[in-house]
Design a protein that fits this description.
Low-confidence stretches: none
Distance between the termini: 26 Å
Strand order of the largest sheet: 5-4-3-8-7-6
Mean pLDDT: 87
Number of strands: 10
Shape: globular
CATH class of the largest domain: Alpha Beta
CATH topology of the largest domain: Beta-Lactamase
Helix content: 25-40%
Radius of gyration: 19 Å
CATH architecture of the largest domain: 2-Layer Sandwich
Largest sheet: 6 strands, antiparallel
Strand content: 15-25%
Structural class: alpha+beta
Number of domains: 2
Length: 263
């Protein structure tokens, strides 16, 4: 899981109660959307009494919901209302969203749009695969992915700045399958290969039996702004050892990039 710790600016004091509340909100992710009081207290490194009071306050504000039947907390609709006002990446997403839908329709795969974010890859948009049983449900919009697994995140790894790449490689690099690469040294080499060939094919490194194909998106100034990727059963992505649908992704990348002046 990418590092989501809050980094304070030197000399700028933090409001402790607000910081604790944000830590609790950040505890919820796409792969752990429901948490108990004990789990939240452990994640936030707080006692249960303090955690309960903070959660109650967030609940009153409409940001946290408590399910009395299961004794689990989860994000409430207020979090979506706040998310709807996020401007970062809005122009890119509005341009790319219909293109993602077209990619998914043409290839019968799940399609994703990724952007760099604090040493990780942020899923800015996704289109579910037409065949839902092979949909990559573990990546929701807003989810952060480490840069070592998956074609989209690895394209991000290849094309971000050196400093941003090292930030990503210094964080946790999870081994999701026996084929996941966790060596920072090897991943630097992989990044060079991706930059040279202009695409990435990842097989079995996130989930056995699935493959992914990714390409970079450059704006009109030839600056890297995002990665497009698709994922499905390996046979749908790879044929005779070569990636399928590469032309579809490249054409989509060019189309999006031609409509972007700045990152």
């Amino acid at each position: 899981m990418p590092d989501r710790r809050i980094r304070a600016k030197p000399g700028v004091p933090l409001v402790r109660a607000v910081l604790r509340a944000v830590v609790l909100l950040n505890a919820f992710t796409s792969d752990r959307p429901r948490l108990t009081l004990t789990e939240l207290a452990h994640i936030a490194e707080l006692d249960k009494g303090t955690t309960r009071r903070l959660l109650h306050t967030l609940s009153v504000a409409g940001l946290i919901h408590f399910d009395t039947s299961t004794q689990h907390y989860m994000l409430d609709i207020g979090a979506l209302e706040i998310a709807s006002a996020v401007q970062v990446g809005r122009d890119l997403r509005e341009i790319a969203s219909p293109i993602l839908a077209d990619i998914s329709s043409q290839t019968s795969t799940a399609a994703f749009l990724w952007v760099p974010h604090e040493g990780a890859a942020l899923c800015l948009d996704r289109i579910r695969a037409p065949i839902l049983q092979i949909d990559a449900a573990w990546f929701a919009v807003g989810a952060l992915a480490p840069l070592n697994c998956g074609a989209g995140p690895r394209v991000v790894l290849a094309f971000v700045s050196d400093d941003e790449r090292e930030r990503g490689l210094s964080g946790e690099l999870p081994r999701r399958t026996p084929f996941s690469e966790t060596s920072a040294t090897k991943l630097r080499t992989v990044a060079g290969v991706i930059r040279e060939q202009g695409w990435e094919l990842a097989v079995d490194d996130f989930f056995i039996g699935l493959a992914a194909l990714g390409v970079p998106v450059f704006n009109r100034e030839r600056r890297f702004v995002a990665a497009l990727s698709i994922t499905s059963l390996t046979a749908d992505i790879v044929m005779d050892g070569k990636p399928r649908h590469l032309d579809v992704l490249k054409n989509a990348s060019d189309y999006i990039g031609a409509r972007l002046y700045t990152s």
